[in-house]
Design a protein that fits this description.
- The longest helix is centred in the last third of the chain and has 20 residues.
- A 3-stranded antiparallel beta sheet has the order 1-2-3, with helices on one face.
- It is mainly alpha-helical.
- About 50% of the residues lie in helices and about 10% in strands.
- The radius of gyration is 47 Å and the shape is rod-shaped.
Length: about 300
């Protein structure tokens, strides 16, 4: 009996040493559950993913992605947006592009729609840039065109010698023409004189355009119209009186004393005053050169 008891006690001691019978943990009470929840921090999904994979997850754009045909949106460091319109098309095997940036999306859309409509009707605009300058056009007119009067020659040679004469005619803009007229007016030239300069220049550009030069002539015409409207150019003032006899005498005396003067201008002036005839009629009565040549003197 004693041996059985001792044997049983030995078995129980061995089981206890192996910690087979562990006490069950007590069930959490509501107060204990609240305390556990307060001490436990739940990681956000992104941090859990980073902890599992060892790398930061890809940033997800919560904002709706911007989608607009031919328009790209850019954000600057201040958080403001700008919108760049880019229309691309392959022409004759070469990639061509129209690009312009706007501050507001509505303006970008309007410009895009106008360009697409124009391309559909007229084809993709191709700007051809040549090395021909305003000076080249003036030289060409002086070489091939009709003989110009002394005043026109003086004006065109002055434009050709100016820095403005180096401007390429194929890329000529309205603003460049307007600025040149302002430059002429900033000196001692009157609006009437500036009008003479710009008129001779516009006629020369039109002359070159008719002979195949690549000139945006609509830009020239628009610039001339705005210059007249803004009164940068002005017509010659009408004379309200006739010269007095003493003034006329000084003019005719100076002409008569000019040894280089071949045509008897003084006689013609006096005859014209008293006969009231046109210049062509007076020339037809004598052996004088045609009236056209007299206007050049």
């Amino acid at each position: 009996m004693t041996s059985n008891k001792n044997s049983s006690m030995d078995v129980l001691a061995e089981i206890t040493a192996q910690n087979v019978f562990r006490p069950s943990p007590p069930l959490p009470t509501p107060a204990t559950a609240a305390r556990i929840s307060a001490n436990t921090t739940t990681l956000p999904p992104t941090e859990v993913e980073e902890k599992k994979t060892g790398r930061k997850p890809r940033k997800r754009d919560t904002e709706k992605k911007f989608k607009e045909r031919n328009i790209t949106r850019f954000e600057d460091k201040n958080g403001d947006f700008s919108y760049r319109v880019q229309i691309r098309k392959r022409v004759d095997g070469n990639q061509k592009s129209l690009t312009k940036t706007f501050r507001y999306l509505s303006n970008a859309k309007s410009w895009r729609n106008e360009q697409l409509k124009d391309i559909e009707a007229n084809g993709f605009p191709i700007q051809i840039v040549t090395e021909t300058t305003i000076s080249d056009v003036i030289d060409d007119r002086l070489d091939r065109g009709k003989t110009l009067g002394r005043s026109a020659l003086q004006v065109l040679n002055s434009i050709k010698a100016d820095e403005f004469g180096k401007t390429k005619v194929s890329t000529l803009t309205q603003q460049e023409l307007y600025d040149y007229a302002d430059l002429l007016a900033s000196g001692e030239r009157t609006p009437q004189t500036v009008a003479g300069y710009m008129t001779h220049l516009a006629r020369t550009l039109n002359w070159a355009k008719d002979r195949g030069a690549l000139i945006p002539i609509e830009v020239v015409n628009l610039a001339m119209r705005t210059l007249w409207e803004d009164e940068v150019l002005a017509r010659s003032e009408e004379r309200e009186r006739r010269p007095e006899l003493c003034e006329l005498n000084k003019i005719l005396t100076a002409i008569s004393e000019n040894t280089r003067q071949k045509i008897p201008v003084a006689i013609l002036v006096v005859f014209a005053i008293y006969s009231a005839r046109r210049l062509s009629e007076i020339c037809s009565l004598s052996d004088l050169p045609p009236a056209k040549s007299l206007t050049m003197v």
